[in-house]
Structure formats: C-alpha cells, structure tokens
Amino acid sequence: MNEHLKVAQMGLGPIGLECLKALAEAPWAQVVGAVDIDPAKCGADLAVLIGQKALRGLRVCASPEELKQSPEIIFHTAVSRFKDAYEQLEALARRGINVVSSCEELVFPSLRQPRLAQRLDALCRKTGARVVGTGVNPGFVMDVLPVCLGGVVRDIRAIQVERIVDASTRREPLQRKIGSGQPPAQFRRLLRSGRAGHAGLAESLALIAHALNWKTVRIVESANPVVAKRNIRTRYFSVIKGQTCGLHQRVVATTATGCRILLDLKMYLGAENPRDIVRIKGNPPLDLVMQGGVAGDQATVAALVNTARRLMKAPPGLALLTDLPMA
Q1: pLDDT tens column, 33-58
Q2: Phi, psi of 46 (to 5 degrees)
Q3: Number of H helices, E strands in the chain
Q4: Among 253, 181, 176, residue whose Cα is nearest residue 214
Q5: Which of 45, 114, 143, 256 is the Cys-Cys partner for 204 at CB 3.0 to 4.6 Å?
Q6: 285 with 163, same domain?
Q7: Is cis: bond before 64, omega within 30 of 0?
Q8: Is the pTM here over 0.90, yes or no?
Q9: Are residues 284 and 259 part of one domain?
Q10: How many domains does the chain have?
Q11: Are 60 and 103 in the same domain?
Q12: Residue 283: which H helix or E strand, with range?
C-alpha cells in the first residue's frame, strides 16, 4: 500500500462535503477529485467549495470516469438503499476501485439483496476491489459496539440497544427524512410504504446475529411518527404542535433457542436527554450508557475516514465491518 492513498469523494451533500474536508486534512490521503450529479456543483473548484487551498484546480466531475486520476479509494455518500447504490458500486468495483460507503443497507447487504451482494462480492474478488458500508447508525452504535462489548460476556441471552437522538441538532436532509412538519397520518403512510424513515436498522440486527452466529427465526420491524407536543423551530423547519417531529422505530428478533435482539431508535426534534444505551444479558451482564449519545454527523465522517486504511488491509471482496481489522 502506498504511503499516500489517492482518494476521491462521491456525493457532495452535507456528509460528503465534510468527508472531503477531512480527507483534505488527512496526512495519508491525496485527494484527486470529487463526483456529484448535481449540475449546479459540476465544474466547481474544490478549493472554493470546501475552503481548502490545497485542492485548488480540482473540479467536481459528473462521473468517476471523468476524474483526471484514478483513485485507489472512493468515499461514497450518495444513497441509503443497497439496490439503488448497486449500479454505482458495480461500476467502481469493475475498475478495481475500493469503496467506503455510508449506504446504510450496505452494512449487511445480503439481508434484503442476497443475489446482488453475492454478485458484487464475486466481482470484487475478480478485480481486487474492496467494498464496505460504515457509519454511526448503522455501523457502530447499534451493531459493532454491542458486538465488541459481547466479547467479554459468556452465555449471552439478550442484547438490547436504545438510541435517543435530538434531531434538531442534525443536518437538513435527516430532519426532512424523519418527517419534520408532516401530518402524522401522511408520514405514517410513508413509513409503511418504505418511502420514509431510518434505513439500516434491520441490517444492524442482522450484523449482530451474524457476528454471534445466531440464526434468527423472524425479524419484526415497526415504525411510527413522534408527534410534537409543542411548537418547535429549527434552522430548517418550523413544526407546529400536533405535526410530526420525528420517528420511533424498533426491530426485534429471537432465535430458536430463545435469545433475543431488540434495537429501539427514537429520533425526533427536541428529544430530551439524548443518549445511547447498550444492555447485554449474560455472564457478566453489561449496561452501558453514553450520555449525550454519539454525535451522528461528525462521527459519521470520522467513521468513513477511519475505515479506509482498515479496508485496505482486508482481502478483496464485499466486506462486513466485523471482517475488518480493529485498527
């Protein structure tokens, strides 16, 4: 592996821009460009876009093929669903380009798309590419963290993770995704149709079960709007009492032997006492509370950047986070 990895950013939303800034400051990375399909961003100078003089002369391209230099790694922050991301990931893997992605379903892609996962893994092994999905949730708090904690517990009988997030401090796309300002009945219909809500919760559960070698009998998901009890104003939305201000999602599964995994996510504007909780029933039992919770946006950028060199140590293929070395 070269001392400096040639890297590029694909997707220049709020997370993508912050990731690009972090890469520009990373001593091990050489930024060779960025990609976005937004016509308003194509052709923009990266130095102007993110305020980094060192990137002067590098322009936003409409596709990875237009980059003047081929990157060794692309940081992909474009979509949440693996099915939607597949075409982009396949094109990169076909060129032997490694990918670190924030695509939520990529944390355990075979849950919903086993054939696409097998196809992408086979292609990566053929071309020498590596692909992995990472982030904070999914990618750490509700999956990798409880798996790591379980390493000091025998006879695990149950894992419960609860995450309470004050979404008023988060980026505009996330506040929109959780239904801010929508009528509850309308948002409930969107949740039921799969057109809204937090992606990746079931994938987190599947990753835990995989790491523990548990065979789940059934995974049950539920999602409901959180209704504002008062008027709420954020930088991006004004929510009137009675409108949707967030969501409450749960996913639970049991095994044939009665072991249980429960993941409970509450993400809404003005949530009081935000925190992340991991409880493991076993010998010894564990009860971890992180007051304030993990700062989602900043930590997502850190997760993306910190995963890169770990991925380069892994063999080619479509990897899970639990497949990668710890450091």
Answers
A1: 999 999 999 999 999 999 988 899 99
A2: -65, -30
A3: 9, 15
A4: 253
A5: 143
A6: yes
A7: no
A8: yes
A9: yes
A10: 2
A11: yes
A12: strand 275-283
Residue 214 domain boundaries? 144-293
Q: What is the 3-state secondary structure (H, E, C) of 179-208?
A: CCCCCHHHHHHHHHHCCCCCCCHHHHHHHH
Look at residue 162 and give its three-state secondary structure: strand
Looking at the structure, do residues 154 and 278 belong to the same domain, yes or no?
A: yes
Buried b / exposed e over 179-209, threshold 16 CB at 10 Å, is bbbbebeebbebbeeeebbbbbbbbbbbbbb
What CATH number is associated with residue 121?
Answer: 3.40.50.720
In a shared domain, residues 190 and 265: yes
248 contact partners, CB below 8 Å, separation of at least 6: 223, 224, 225, 226, 264, 265, 266, 268
Give the separation between CA 40 and CA 202, rounded to whole angstroms: 35
Say if residue 272 is in the same domain as residue 151: yes
Q: Are 154 and 280 within one domain? A: yes
Q: Alpha-carbon distance 294 to 300, whole Å? A: 9
Are 177 and 287 in a shared domain? yes
Per residue in 77-121, pLDDT tens? 999 999 999 999 999 999 999 999 999 999 999 999 999 999 999
Instruction: Give the CATH number of the domain where residue 274 resides.
Output: 3.30.360
Query: Which neighbouring-strand residues pair with 227?
Result: 244
Residues forming a β-bridge with 132: 100, 319
